[in-house]
Amino acid sequence: MQLRDGRHFAVAVVGGGQAGLATSWHLVRAGVDHVVLEADRVGSEWRSRRWDSFCLVTPNWQCNLPGFPYGGSEPDGFMVRGDIVGYLQDYARSYDVPLAEGVRVTQLDPGFRLTTSAGTITADQIVVATGPYQQPWIPALAERLPVHQLHSSQYKNAAQLPDGDVVVVGTGQSGCQIAEDLHLAGRQVHLVTGTAPRVARVYRGLDVVAWLDRMGYYRRGIDEFDDADAIRFRVNHYVTGRDGGRNIDLRKFALEGMRLYGRLVDADPATLRFADDLRTNLDHADAVSEGIKDSIDAFILAQGIDAPDEPRYRPVWEPSDVPESLDLQGIGAIVWSTGFRREDSWIRLPVFDGRGYPTHHRGVTSVPGVYFIGLPWQHTWGSGRFGGVGDDAQYVVERIAEMQFHWLAGQPRRTVA
């Protein structure tokens, strides 16, 4: 749709990814006048910030946006980058979404006044659906290093990098998968580990995601956990859906020639320095994976499920004499898989805590009429993913409709003046 300067909407949704589109779907069904503002085009984040071999780590059957479940021929497969973009574009075409593409919101002011690249609009209520991956973060010590560097969001493939060894910093999902991509391309990889856990791809005849789904894990609300705040900021388990899905075992990579290190703690223009915690990091990742298997075993036993037995994981490599520094001579590039920070400076409303994180309950903030969608663990594990964002969108839209009903009933509108 064409956005006109000065227009007013009942609801403005900022962001046209899966979270914004799921919200719009529910708003359309509720008959609520709204607009979805997308800075680029639908699917652009998946297209521009993912490497060439990227694929989902959750099976396709978990792609279940409202009114648009996965309908392909490989429900147990893992969509690659292009298919993910296509899925979102097809979703946007599947219903009458009031989408304004190429419209960037630069400021949200009190009174719910939105300054955009297409002019200024206002709304009665605002949904922020900009996602968790906004500002790539690289540690300040990177400025000291005279080596070609890029963030994981800029990585595409091994041929993109200069000749020489490659250092990958970080062992979350992106770091491990990029390290594998480089390793399979024949590059010498130096992988700097962290505390991220891992999970097995398959256990006792089923994808672990399928077991956890049966166990109800993905439907548990965050308020059911004793350490809710810690869970919300926890790093995802590393695993891959590449080539049909498999484990990522850093110990196996080490056997094959990848060089592993502890956490990066310091650097100068010639040297990287690491903590002496590689063994601890590997043992922790394995312990989390085996703990998940323990819970699956208990579920199988309690439910009387006929599932094949499977031997437990045995470490194939143990670190010994791990160097605590690395000379940068011969290093062609460093890939920083160090995550993202939120960038919400455009929001001029009191909706954030002391860390700059949105203060909310299930996406409903303390400012009446302002909501968030698509935050990791907004309510459940699936809140920031294709599998659960629709439930959060439904909840938020129900609150939006309630607010509208109160206004129609004559109650005063409450906005930040």
Brief overview:
GO terms for molecular function: flavin adenine dinucleotide binding; monooxygenase activity. It contains 9 helices and 23 strands.
Protein architecture, described:
The longest helix has 26 residues, at 278-303. It contains 9 helices and 23 strands. Helices cover 26% and strands 21% of the residues. α1 crosses α9 (389-408). It is globular, with a radius of gyration of 23 Å. The protein folds into 2 domains: 8-134 and 342-408, FAD/NAD(P)-binding domain (3-Layer(bba) Sandwich); 137-336. It has helices spanning 18-30, 44-48, 81-93, 173-184, 208-214, 228-232, 250-255, 278-303, 389-408; strands at residues 8-14, 34-38, 64-65, 68-69, 99-101, 105-109, 113-116, 119-128, 135-136, 148-151, 165-169, 189-192, 202-203, 206-207, 259-261, 264-268, 271-274, 325-327, 331-336, 340-341, 360-361, 364-365, 370-372. The strands form 7 sheets. Strands 1, 2, 5, 6, 7, 8 and 23 form a 7-stranded mixed sheet that branches. A 5-stranded parallel sheet has the order 10-19-11-12-15. The model has no long low-confidence stretch (mean pLDDT 94). The chain is α/β, with parallel strands linked by helices and 417 residues long. It comes from Kribbella albertanoniae.
